[in-house]
Amino acid sequence: MNYQDILKIPTSFPQFSTPFGPIVDGHVIPNQPYKVMGQYTEHFSRYDLLFGVTESESYHTLGALALEEGLRENERDNLLRFYMQTRFDVRPDLALAATLKK
């Protein structure tokens, strides 16, 4: 099966997650990133900072008013709460509290 056939398969998944995200499989991604970075320091120690830019990332998740004027505080908090619950298996409430504190 080629990748185009795979991408045509209908999927459903929660917001802020991906059905085709990076998965530690032991082959392509051999281990957890922090372990790989510790193991291959000669590759990663050359860089003080790695970052990237994505144009229009997730703009489709916001309505026209939010894109034009920004989110209301309660909308922001609800989106962050849902994001933390989706992305953190352990104590998403602490991640949310720390994020809102900043």
TrEMBL record:
This is (Mediterranean fruit fly) hypothetical protein. Coiled coil: none annotated. Belongs to the type-B carboxylesterase/lipase family. It comes from the Eukaryota. Keywords: Glycoprotein. The keyword tRNA-binding does not apply. Residues 13-85 form the Carboxylesterase type B domain. InterPro entries: AB_hydrolase_fold, CarbesteraseB, Neuroligin/BSAL. It holds the Pfam family COesterase.
